[in-house]
Design goal:
Two copies of one chain form a homodimer. Chain A is mostly helical. Chain A has three domains: 30 residues, no CATH class; 58 residues, Homeodomain-like (Arc Repressor Mutant, subunit A); 117 residues, Orthogonal Bundle (Tetracycline Repressor, domain 2), CATH 1.10.357.10. Helix content of chain A is 70%, strand content 0%. In chain A, helix 5 crosses helix 6. The radius of gyration of chain A is 21 Å and the shape is elongated. The N and C termini of chain A lie far apart (48 Å). The interface between A and B is large, with 46 and 46 residues. Chain A binds a DNA duplex through helix 4.
Chain lengths: 218, 218
DNA sequence: CCAATAATTGACCAATTGTTTTAGAATAGA
DNA sequence: TCTATTCTAAAACAATTGGTCAATTATTGG
């Protein structure tokens, strides 16, 4: 992958004499799909965290042998870094699509929070919670770089919230005196709180918490 | 300890013929203070979590040899359980004292949250965060019993919040239509959120989040 | 002093950890 | 076909993991 990317860069940037360079490269081709393998890793890290996931766990889930994993990703941590980055891209793309497409972004925003108290959603995702939040808590005292990566993810979510709130304000759904940046951060904190509270309250009990939390928007 | 407790129970409940039973018992006495040792363990679990703390880490911090640790606590998990219980008792005692003693419990409650954005507090505790919240996140998918223990701790905090809010309501500081139970849970969620948000924002940036979060109380 | 009990010590343990190595297999380009 | 390159497979690795054990030491009560 890196090799091909490297070639792509050269392909585009080099002078015309090199245009004929192939995008592929000599050598045995990969027998697995990197994106797919990272998705499996993602799932494990999401459910169990980094420390509680062993390399053997990863190998089994990704369908790889040690050689392939270490050749491609360098280390267990390397898998974690790439899986986390991939999750970030996927999650943010989906979130942006949900919040930017509807005609009423404020309503979609509220529904996004309310969905966290939906029992069906609860069964599927609540056990895992927020990938960023989990990683941030686990890595905070162990790996500053990973902590930063997780924090970056959440700040990107903040940005999406901010854009939705700005849009709502321009549409007159939000008081002109409201501060969309401050509200976005407040909502991130509500989000983060629910990542923990979900594990101690029933979906039923989460509803009033969410409604009280969203009160500041109306 | 268990032995002495057992003797204490017998001492109190048995018929007078057994009153002479000593509270101590034959055998070599413990050379370390259990409460103190658990405090050291607590500190480690708090900072690094359970998985990232090895038995060797524990032995070094607690000043014990393997034999003593396993004789007294049974397992690494046993240390975790007891350290967590001890933390719960200590933390809740301190919190109750802070909230129940002042003449203005609502004000103390707000100050408790504002303290989370105090840089000096940040340096000391923010890196570790909330023991209950951290444990809840880590144990949620690994150890249901420990998850329950951590959740219990947070629900006890909820109860302390509830009592402060009820008191404030009776004193007329809170609208009669307010629901102290719902507000207490909302505040627990604010608390839980800050346990994660603290790791991505500066203390400066936490302030408006906290103030917005406390807005529902006025 | 003796028997019973309990705590400490240090050696020992099997299993698992993340990682490396070495040999071979599969491809592209010359 | 030869060479360079990349990927895979399997074995081997040292280190660390959480935990056990037998022998010894310290205490209480009779």
């Amino acid at each position: 992958m890196d090799i091909i990317l490297d070639r792509m860069v050269k392909y585009i940037t080099f002078d015309p004499s090199n245009v004929k360079t192939s995008l592929t490269v000599a050598g045995r081709p990969k027998e697995f799909d990197e994106v797919d393998a990272l998705s499996r890793a993602q799932e494990l890290f999401w459910r169990q965290g980094y420390g509680a996931t062993s390399t053997e766990d990863l190998l089994a889930a990704m369908g790889l042998r040690k050689g392939s994993l270490y050749h491609t990703f360098g280390s267990k941590r390397g898998v974690f870094v790439q899986a986390t980055k991939q999750f970030g891209h996927e999650f943010l793309r989906a979130l942006r699509q949900a919040l930017q497409q509807g005609s009423d972004p404020l309503e979609v925003l509220c529904q996004t929070f309310r969905a966290l108290a939906d029992p069906s959603h609860a069964a599927a995702v609540a056990a895992k919670g927020c990938y960023f939040g989990n990683t941030l808590v686990e890595m905070a005292t162990l790996d500053p770089e990973m902590q930063h990566l997780a924090a970056q993810g959440l700040m990107a979510v903040e940005q999406v919230f901010y854009e939705a709130l700005s849009q709502a304000q321009q549409a007159g759904q939000l008081s002109q005196s409201a501060d969309p940046r401050a509200l976005a951060r407040y909502l991130i904190n509500l989000w983060n709180g629910l990542n923990i509270s979900r594990r101690m309250y029933t979906p039923q009990d989460l509803i009033p918490i969410i409604e009280t939390g969203l009160q500041v928007l109306v």
